[in-house]
Amino acid sequence: MAVNLLDFDGPGLAAWLAGQGEKPFRARQVLRWIHRFGQTDFSAMTDVARALRERLGEIAEIRLPAVTSDRLSGDGTRKFLFDVGQGNAVETVFIPEEDRGTLCVSTQAGCALECAFCSTGRQGFNRNLTAAEIIGQLLQANRLLGRDPAGERIISNVVLMGMGEPLANFDNVVTALRLMLDDHAHGLSRRRVTVSTAGLVPAIDRLREACPVALAVSLHAPTDTLRDRLVPINRKYPLAELMGACRRYLEVAPRDFITFEYVMLAGVNDSDADAKALLRLVDGIPCKFNLIPFNPFPDSGFRRPAPERVRRFATFIADAGIVTTTRKTRGDDIDAACGQLAGQVLDRSRRVAGRVIQLAEVGR
Ligand code: SAH
Prior knowledge:
The chain is of the alpha/beta class.
Protein backbone atom coordinates (compact mmCIF):
# COMPACT_ATOMS: atom_id res chain seq x y z
CA MET A 1 0.00 0.00 0.00
CA ALA A 2 1.17 3.52 -0.75
CA VAL A 3 2.75 5.45 2.12
CA ASN A 4 0.60 8.34 3.32
CA LEU A 5 3.01 11.29 3.58
CA LEU A 6 0.68 12.98 6.08
CA ASP A 7 1.93 10.52 8.68
CA PHE A 8 5.41 12.11 8.61
CA ASP A 9 6.66 15.16 10.45
CA GLY A 10 9.64 17.06 8.93
CA PRO A 11 12.41 14.79 10.22
CA GLY A 12 10.31 11.72 9.47
CA LEU A 13 9.77 12.79 5.88
CA ALA A 14 13.48 13.61 5.48
CA ALA A 15 14.41 10.15 6.74
CA TRP A 16 11.91 8.43 4.46
CA LEU A 17 13.09 10.42 1.45
CA ALA A 18 16.71 9.69 2.37
CA GLY A 19 15.73 6.02 2.11
CA GLN A 20 14.70 6.81 -1.48
CA GLY A 21 18.11 8.40 -2.08
CA GLU A 22 16.85 11.99 -1.81
CA LYS A 23 18.49 15.00 -0.15
CA PRO A 24 16.96 16.63 2.98
CA PHE A 25 15.90 19.82 1.16
CA ARG A 26 13.41 17.73 -0.83
CA ALA A 27 11.58 17.04 2.42
CA ARG A 28 11.22 20.76 3.05
CA GLN A 29 9.87 21.30 -0.45
CA VAL A 30 7.35 18.51 -0.22
CA LEU A 31 6.34 19.53 3.31
CA ARG A 32 5.65 23.06 2.11
CA TRP A 33 3.53 21.89 -0.78
CA ILE A 34 1.44 19.64 1.40
CA HIS A 35 1.00 21.69 4.53
CA ARG A 36 1.50 25.28 3.52
CA PHE A 37 -0.21 25.19 0.16
CA GLY A 38 -2.57 22.27 0.78
CA GLN A 39 -1.46 20.54 -2.41
CA THR A 40 -2.35 16.85 -2.60
CA ASP A 41 -1.30 16.23 -6.21
CA PHE A 42 2.39 15.40 -6.65
CA SER A 43 2.40 16.44 -10.31
CA ALA A 44 1.58 20.03 -9.27
CA MET A 45 4.68 20.31 -7.02
CA THR A 46 6.55 22.25 -9.67
CA ASP A 47 9.88 22.85 -7.89
CA VAL A 48 10.28 19.15 -7.11
CA ALA A 49 12.34 17.26 -9.71
CA ARG A 50 10.08 15.54 -12.23
CA ALA A 51 11.57 12.11 -11.60
CA LEU A 52 10.83 12.40 -7.89
CA ARG A 53 7.30 13.64 -8.55
CA GLU A 54 6.67 10.61 -10.72
CA ARG A 55 8.18 8.23 -8.19
CA LEU A 56 6.10 9.73 -5.37
CA GLY A 57 3.00 9.30 -7.50
CA GLU A 58 3.79 5.58 -7.65
CA ILE A 59 4.76 4.78 -4.08
CA ALA A 60 3.20 7.52 -1.94
CA GLU A 61 -0.05 9.36 -1.43
CA ILE A 62 -1.47 12.34 0.43
CA ARG A 63 -4.67 10.97 1.86
CA LEU A 64 -6.91 13.28 3.85
CA PRO A 65 -9.77 12.01 6.00
CA ALA A 66 -13.06 12.52 4.13
CA VAL A 67 -15.47 15.21 5.33
CA THR A 68 -18.93 13.69 5.46
CA SER A 69 -20.82 16.53 7.10
CA ASP A 70 -20.27 20.26 7.48
CA ARG A 71 -22.71 22.18 9.68
CA LEU A 72 -22.85 25.85 10.57
CA SER A 73 -24.21 27.02 13.91
CA GLY A 74 -26.21 30.23 14.36
CA ASP A 75 -23.21 31.73 16.19
CA GLY A 76 -20.72 31.00 13.40
CA THR A 77 -19.28 27.83 14.93
CA ARG A 78 -18.79 25.20 12.26
CA LYS A 79 -18.65 21.45 12.85
CA PHE A 80 -17.07 18.97 10.47
CA LEU A 81 -17.56 15.24 10.62
CA PHE A 82 -14.68 13.12 9.33
CA ASP A 83 -15.10 9.54 8.23
CA VAL A 84 -12.10 7.60 9.52
CA GLY A 85 -13.25 4.22 8.27
CA GLN A 86 -14.79 1.05 9.68
CA GLY A 87 -17.86 2.81 10.96
CA ASN A 88 -15.93 5.46 12.91
CA ALA A 89 -16.27 9.19 12.49
CA VAL A 90 -14.75 12.03 14.51
CA GLU A 91 -15.72 15.67 14.87
CA THR A 92 -13.73 18.87 14.45
CA VAL A 93 -15.06 22.26 15.45
CA PHE A 94 -14.10 25.69 14.16
CA ILE A 95 -14.80 28.53 16.59
CA PRO A 96 -14.48 32.05 15.15
CA GLU A 97 -13.73 34.87 17.57
CA GLU A 98 -12.99 38.50 17.03
CA ASP A 99 -9.21 38.23 17.34
CA ARG A 100 -8.62 34.61 16.35
CA GLY A 101 -10.02 31.48 14.76
CA THR A 102 -9.67 28.32 16.77
CA LEU A 103 -9.86 24.77 15.47
CA CYS A 104 -10.76 22.11 18.02
CA VAL A 105 -9.27 18.82 16.84
CA SER A 106 -10.00 15.20 17.82
CA THR A 107 -7.25 12.72 18.63
CA GLN A 108 -9.07 9.42 19.13
CA ALA A 109 -12.20 7.68 17.85
CA GLY A 110 -14.00 7.65 21.18
CA CYS A 111 -12.22 7.83 24.51
CA ALA A 112 -11.33 5.28 27.15
CA LEU A 113 -11.27 7.59 30.17
CA GLU A 114 -14.98 7.52 31.03
CA CYS A 115 -15.26 10.96 32.60
CA ALA A 116 -18.72 10.94 34.14
CA PHE A 117 -20.03 14.11 32.45
CA CYS A 118 -18.65 13.68 28.91
CA SER A 119 -20.65 12.30 26.01
CA THR A 120 -17.57 11.12 24.10
CA GLY A 121 -16.67 9.03 27.14
CA ARG A 122 -20.13 7.45 27.09
CA GLN A 123 -19.54 6.11 23.62
CA GLY A 124 -16.60 3.91 24.41
CA PHE A 125 -13.31 3.69 22.60
CA ASN A 126 -12.35 2.37 19.20
CA ARG A 127 -8.82 3.44 18.34
CA ASN A 128 -6.18 6.13 18.23
CA LEU A 129 -6.26 8.42 15.22
CA THR A 130 -3.16 8.31 13.01
CA ALA A 131 -0.98 11.41 12.70
CA ALA A 132 -2.42 11.80 9.18
CA GLU A 133 -5.96 11.81 10.55
CA ILE A 134 -5.07 14.41 13.19
CA ILE A 135 -3.18 16.83 10.93
CA GLY A 136 -5.69 16.01 8.16
CA GLN A 137 -8.43 17.70 10.21
CA LEU A 138 -6.44 20.94 10.12
CA LEU A 139 -5.64 20.61 6.41
CA GLN A 140 -9.24 19.93 5.48
CA ALA A 141 -10.57 22.71 7.70
CA ASN A 142 -8.07 25.15 6.17
CA ARG A 143 -9.28 24.11 2.75
CA LEU A 144 -12.95 24.48 3.56
CA LEU A 145 -12.57 27.76 5.45
CA GLY A 146 -10.37 29.41 2.86
CA ARG A 147 -8.57 32.67 3.65
CA ASP A 148 -9.63 36.01 5.03
CA PRO A 149 -9.79 39.12 2.82
CA ALA A 150 -6.14 39.89 3.65
CA GLY A 151 -5.14 36.46 2.34
CA GLU A 152 -4.35 35.11 5.80
CA ARG A 153 -5.30 31.70 7.11
CA ILE A 154 -8.55 31.81 9.08
CA ILE A 155 -7.34 29.26 11.61
CA SER A 156 -4.85 30.94 13.95
CA ASN A 157 -5.07 28.59 16.95
CA VAL A 158 -5.42 24.85 17.42
CA VAL A 159 -6.68 23.14 20.55
CA LEU A 160 -6.56 19.38 20.99
CA MET A 161 -9.86 19.42 22.85
CA GLY A 162 -12.09 17.38 20.58
CA MET A 163 -12.86 13.70 20.99
CA GLY A 164 -10.31 11.61 22.84
CA GLU A 165 -7.43 12.00 25.27
CA PRO A 166 -4.47 13.42 23.31
CA LEU A 167 -1.82 12.16 25.70
CA ALA A 168 -3.15 8.60 25.44
CA ASN A 169 -2.21 8.77 21.74
CA PHE A 170 1.18 10.26 22.44
CA ASP A 171 3.35 9.49 19.41
CA ASN A 172 0.80 10.38 16.76
CA VAL A 173 -0.18 13.53 18.63
CA VAL A 174 3.45 14.65 18.88
CA THR A 175 3.98 14.04 15.14
CA ALA A 176 0.91 16.17 14.39
CA LEU A 177 2.03 18.86 16.86
CA ARG A 178 5.43 19.07 15.19
CA LEU A 179 3.74 19.62 11.85
CA MET A 180 1.61 22.37 13.36
CA LEU A 181 4.73 24.13 14.65
CA ASP A 182 7.17 23.50 11.78
CA ASP A 183 7.84 26.66 9.77
CA HIS A 184 7.89 24.64 6.58
CA ALA A 185 4.49 23.16 7.46
CA HIS A 186 1.83 25.10 9.40
CA GLY A 187 4.15 27.44 11.28
CA LEU A 188 1.90 28.05 14.29
CA SER A 189 3.52 29.42 17.43
CA ARG A 190 3.73 27.11 20.46
CA ARG A 191 1.55 29.52 22.34
CA ARG A 192 -1.25 29.06 19.82
CA VAL A 193 -1.33 25.29 20.03
CA THR A 194 -2.87 23.79 23.15
CA VAL A 195 -2.98 20.21 24.36
CA SER A 196 -5.76 19.49 26.83
CA THR A 197 -5.43 16.49 29.11
CA ALA A 198 -7.50 14.82 31.80
CA GLY A 199 -4.21 14.36 33.67
CA LEU A 200 -1.98 11.56 32.39
CA VAL A 201 0.95 12.48 34.60
CA PRO A 202 3.82 10.52 32.97
CA ALA A 203 2.71 11.71 29.53
CA ILE A 204 2.65 15.35 30.69
CA ASP A 205 6.32 14.89 31.59
CA ARG A 206 7.01 13.31 28.21
CA LEU A 207 5.29 16.14 26.39
CA ARG A 208 7.46 18.56 28.31
CA GLU A 209 10.49 16.84 26.80
CA ALA A 210 9.16 16.11 23.34
CA CYS A 211 7.16 19.14 22.33
CA PRO A 212 6.16 21.75 24.91
CA VAL A 213 3.05 23.57 23.70
CA ALA A 214 0.45 25.37 25.79
CA LEU A 215 -1.10 23.03 28.32
CA ALA A 216 -4.67 22.84 29.58
CA VAL A 217 -5.58 20.44 32.36
CA SER A 218 -9.14 19.26 32.92
CA LEU A 219 -9.36 19.63 36.67
CA HIS A 220 -13.11 19.58 37.44
CA ALA A 221 -12.79 18.85 41.18
CA PRO A 222 -10.83 20.23 44.13
CA THR A 223 -10.46 16.96 46.05
CA ASP A 224 -9.43 13.41 45.21
CA THR A 225 -12.70 12.01 46.56
CA LEU A 226 -14.76 14.00 44.09
CA ARG A 227 -12.27 13.80 41.22
CA ASP A 228 -12.03 10.01 41.54
CA ARG A 229 -15.73 9.96 40.71
CA LEU A 230 -15.80 12.57 37.93
CA VAL A 231 -12.47 11.86 36.22
CA PRO A 232 -11.65 8.20 36.98
CA ILE A 233 -8.03 8.49 35.76
CA ASN A 234 -7.53 10.41 39.02
CA ARG A 235 -7.49 7.07 40.86
CA LYS A 236 -4.25 6.33 39.04
CA TYR A 237 -2.77 9.85 39.08
CA PRO A 238 -4.17 11.73 42.08
CA LEU A 239 -4.22 15.50 42.44
CA ALA A 240 -0.91 15.87 44.30
CA GLU A 241 0.90 14.11 41.44
CA LEU A 242 -1.00 16.07 38.84
CA MET A 243 -0.09 19.38 40.49
CA GLY A 244 3.55 18.23 40.57
CA ALA A 245 3.46 17.53 36.83
CA CYS A 246 1.96 20.99 36.22
CA ARG A 247 4.79 22.62 38.19
CA ARG A 248 7.40 20.72 36.19
CA TYR A 249 5.69 21.58 32.92
CA LEU A 250 5.77 25.28 33.73
CA GLU A 251 9.57 25.20 33.65
CA VAL A 252 9.44 24.79 29.86
CA ALA A 253 5.92 25.88 28.91
CA PRO A 254 5.61 28.49 26.15
CA ARG A 255 3.13 30.36 28.31
CA ASP A 256 3.88 31.11 31.92
CA PHE A 257 0.67 29.57 33.20
CA ILE A 258 -1.35 26.37 33.04
CA THR A 259 -4.98 26.63 32.03
CA PHE A 260 -7.26 24.69 34.35
CA GLU A 261 -10.54 23.70 32.79
CA TYR A 262 -13.38 23.22 35.21
CA VAL A 263 -16.75 21.92 34.09
CA MET A 264 -19.44 23.36 36.35
CA LEU A 265 -21.94 20.76 37.52
CA ALA A 266 -24.90 21.95 39.60
CA GLY A 267 -24.76 20.75 43.18
CA VAL A 268 -21.68 18.62 42.49
CA ASN A 269 -18.60 20.88 42.28
CA ASP A 270 -19.97 24.43 42.15
CA SER A 271 -20.18 25.61 45.78
CA ASP A 272 -18.20 28.39 47.43
CA ALA A 273 -16.50 25.69 49.51
CA ASP A 274 -15.39 23.98 46.28
CA ALA A 275 -13.96 27.25 45.00
CA LYS A 276 -12.11 27.76 48.27
CA ALA A 277 -10.67 24.25 48.15
CA LEU A 278 -9.62 24.82 44.55
CA LEU A 279 -7.66 27.90 45.54
CA ARG A 280 -5.81 25.86 48.16
CA LEU A 281 -5.08 23.13 45.62
CA VAL A 282 -3.52 25.41 43.01
CA ASP A 283 -1.74 27.65 45.48
CA GLY A 284 1.70 28.52 44.08
CA ILE A 285 0.95 27.32 40.54
CA PRO A 286 0.72 30.15 38.00
CA CYS A 287 -2.58 29.40 36.31
CA LYS A 288 -5.76 30.60 34.70
CA PHE A 289 -9.18 29.11 35.16
CA ASN A 290 -11.54 28.37 32.34
CA LEU A 291 -14.96 27.51 33.71
CA ILE A 292 -17.15 25.45 31.38
CA PRO A 293 -20.82 25.44 32.36
CA PHE A 294 -21.93 21.85 31.81
CA ASN A 295 -23.30 21.16 28.34
CA PRO A 296 -26.12 18.69 28.67
CA PHE A 297 -26.68 15.57 26.59
CA PRO A 298 -29.36 12.87 26.92
CA ASP A 299 -29.28 10.84 30.17
CA SER A 300 -26.18 12.61 31.43
CA GLY A 301 -27.46 12.77 35.00
CA PHE A 302 -25.92 16.24 35.48
CA ARG A 303 -27.28 19.78 35.30
CA ARG A 304 -25.77 23.14 34.48
CA PRO A 305 -25.70 25.54 37.44
CA ALA A 306 -27.73 28.77 37.29
CA PRO A 307 -25.77 31.63 35.67
CA GLU A 308 -25.66 33.44 39.01
CA ARG A 309 -23.90 30.45 40.64
CA VAL A 310 -21.32 30.33 37.85
CA ARG A 311 -20.73 34.07 38.22
CA ARG A 312 -20.21 33.77 41.97
CA PHE A 313 -17.81 30.88 41.57
CA ALA A 314 -15.86 32.81 38.93
CA THR A 315 -15.72 35.91 41.13
CA PHE A 316 -14.51 33.87 44.09
CA ILE A 317 -11.51 32.61 42.10
CA ALA A 318 -10.86 35.89 40.33
CA ASP A 319 -10.83 37.71 43.67
CA ALA A 320 -7.84 35.59 44.66
CA GLY A 321 -5.97 37.13 41.72
CA ILE A 322 -6.37 34.28 39.23
CA VAL A 323 -7.56 35.18 35.74
CA THR A 324 -10.86 33.40 35.31
CA THR A 325 -12.91 33.13 32.16
CA THR A 326 -16.23 31.42 31.65
CA ARG A 327 -16.39 29.59 28.38
CA LYS A 328 -19.27 30.75 26.25
CA THR A 329 -21.41 27.95 25.03
CA ARG A 330 -20.74 27.93 21.33
CA GLY A 331 -22.31 25.75 18.71
CA ASP A 332 -24.68 23.94 21.04
CA ASP A 333 -27.47 24.19 18.45
CA ILE A 334 -25.44 21.74 16.33
CA ASP A 335 -24.17 19.67 19.30
CA ALA A 336 -20.68 21.10 18.87
CA ALA A 337 -20.17 22.40 22.41
CA CYS A 338 -17.61 20.94 24.83
CA GLY A 339 -18.51 17.44 25.84
CA GLN A 340 -21.15 17.09 23.15
CA LEU A 341 -18.87 15.74 20.43
CA ALA A 342 -19.93 12.23 19.72
CA GLY A 343 -19.07 11.47 16.09
CA GLN A 344 -19.66 7.82 15.60
CA VAL A 345 -17.70 5.23 17.53
CA LEU A 346 -17.83 1.50 17.21
CA ASP A 347 -16.96 0.71 20.79
CA ARG A 348 -14.42 -2.06 21.17
CA SER A 349 -13.98 -1.79 24.90
CA ARG A 350 -17.41 -3.36 25.56
CA ARG A 351 -17.96 -0.94 28.38
CA VAL A 352 -21.10 0.46 26.83
CA ALA A 353 -23.01 -2.78 27.13
CA GLY A 354 -21.93 -2.98 30.76
CA ARG A 355 -23.15 0.51 31.37
CA VAL A 356 -26.57 -0.19 29.94
CA ILE A 357 -26.94 -3.03 32.40
CA GLN A 358 -25.77 -0.83 35.26
CA LEU A 359 -28.23 1.90 34.38
CA ALA A 360 -31.01 -0.66 34.12
CA GLU A 361 -30.17 -1.90 37.60
CA VAL A 362 -30.20 1.59 39.01
CA GLY A 363 -33.59 2.11 37.42
CA ARG A 364 -35.16 -0.85 39.23
N1 SAH B 1 -9.43 14.38 27.08
C1 SAH B 1 -8.94 15.74 27.07
C2 SAH B 1 -9.42 16.49 25.86
C3 SAH B 1 -10.93 16.76 25.84
S1 SAH B 1 -11.12 18.46 26.02
C4 SAH B 1 -9.31 16.42 28.36
O1 SAH B 1 -10.01 15.81 29.16
O2 SAH B 1 -8.86 17.53 28.63
C5 SAH B 1 -12.80 18.64 26.28
C6 SAH B 1 -13.09 19.49 27.50
O3 SAH B 1 -14.51 19.58 27.67
C7 SAH B 1 -12.54 18.83 28.75
O4 SAH B 1 -12.16 19.78 29.69
C8 SAH B 1 -13.76 18.08 29.21
O5 SAH B 1 -13.67 17.70 30.55
C9 SAH B 1 -14.85 19.07 28.95
N2 SAH B 1 -16.17 18.47 28.90
C10 SAH B 1 -16.47 17.17 28.69
N3 SAH B 1 -17.79 16.98 28.73
C11 SAH B 1 -18.34 18.18 28.98
C12 SAH B 1 -19.71 18.62 29.09
N4 SAH B 1 -20.73 17.78 28.96
N5 SAH B 1 -19.90 19.93 29.31
C13 SAH B 1 -18.86 20.79 29.39
N6 SAH B 1 -17.58 20.42 29.28
C14 SAH B 1 -17.32 19.13 29.08
